[in-house]
TrEMBL record:
Keywords from the UniProt entry: Transferase
Organism: Aerosakkonema funiforme FACHB-1375
One GO molecular-function entry: sulfotransferase activity
Domain annotation Sulfotransferase: ranges: 22-262
Name the UniProt record assigns to this protein: Sulfotransferase domain-containing protein
InterPro entries, A to Z: P-loop_NTPase (IPR027417), Sulfotransferase_dom (IPR000863)
Protein family according to the UniProt entry: Belongs to the sulfotransferase 1 family.
Length: 297
């Protein structure tokens, strides 16, 4: 039985109403890890353009399934009907942990990961992009105050670490691909090639150029109305797309606490990967020392 997630933003049971297709692709993240960027990369690999198969926005072509209430749709029935009418292959967005999703061996799952320090700063800046007509979000006075509220609880959304761990534990499955944001922006051509191979999509030089150009931050900012999710001020949705800006904001004490906390949650090897990207460590049994350390913390 799947984990049930219900909060003011999501209801995981909505997935029960989605009729599975063998060609379905799931694009997942906790948040602020390159979800919209990856949706656009997948769109370009499949469709070869930013016309979105006749829909007005990327979010209509690739809806956030469990999102409720969803400003895109007048009712849940309308949303499910919309999803059922999407062309194949569908690529659907989720912010659920792995164990809250339906699992089908035929589906392809892409999960995005980013260093928590970058996630936190991006989320803090992201808060300023909320459209007050849709969301009533109380903003902290400073990033440091936000950080203290967010690190262990994920406030005002949901915790990051158990979410990431749920996907790390299944990373050896052939239909699951984990992508690190640092790799995606630092070695974009290679990561696009990995995604294309994973999806079984052939990519010649012409398609490669289109994917790179139309998934660039500059392109997506220029056409922000087509990419920003509903409920956000489009031009404010996209940040700078950079990592490491937190270095001048977090104190040595807060950084040390982060190091200790993330190792306790994920173990040393996976914590290092989440922080730095690079090669994903193989899925091995945790050492006794790591297990004990994790239980203590």
């Amino acid at each position: 039985m799947n984990l049930v997630v219900k909060n003011i933003y999501s209801d995981s049971t909505i997935w029960n109403a989605v009729n599975a297709r063998k060609t379905d692709i799931i694009i997942a993240s906790c948040y602020k890890a390159g979800t919209t960027l990856t949706q656009q990369i997948v769109n370009l690999l499949i469709n070869g353009n930013s016309e979105f198969s006749g829909y007005s926005t990327l979010q209509e072509l690739s809806p956030w399934v469990e999102h409720t209430p969803d400003p895109l749709f007048a009712s849940l029935e309308e949303k499910i009907d919309h999803i059922e009418k999407l062309p194949e292959p569908r690529f659907l967005k989720t912010h659920l942990p792995f164990d809250a999703l339906p699992y089908h061996p035929e589906w392809k799952y892409i999960y995005l990961v980013r260093d928590g320090r970058d996630v936190a700063l991006s989320l803090y800046n992201h808060n300023a992009g909320y459209d007050p007509a849709f969301w009533d979000v109380k903003l902290e006075d400073s990033f440091l105050e936000f950080w203290d509220n967010w690190l262990e609880t994920g406030r005002h959304l949901w915790p990051l670490w158990d979410h990431i761990d749920s996907w790390l534990q299944v990373r050896d499955r052939p239909n699951i691909l984990l992508i690190h944001y640092a790799n995606l922006i630092g070695d974009k051509e290679n990561e696009i090639a990995r995604i294309a191979e994973f999806l079984g999509v052939k990519m010649d030089a012409a398609k490669k150029e289109i994917v790179i150009q139309q998934s660039s931050l500059e392109y997506m900012k220029e056409y922000a109305d087509k990419f920003a999710p509903p409920g956000f001020i489009p031009k404010a949705f996209f940040g700078k797309g950079k990592n490491g800006v937190w270095k001048d904001l977090l104190t040595a004490e807060k950084l040390e606490k982060y190091e200790t906390f993330i190792i306790g949650k994920l173990g040393i090897e996976c914590a290092n990967w989440v922080k730095n990207g690079g090669s994903l460590p193989p899925l091995l049994e945790k050492t006794l020392a790591e297990a004990v350390e994790r239980d203590i913390k």
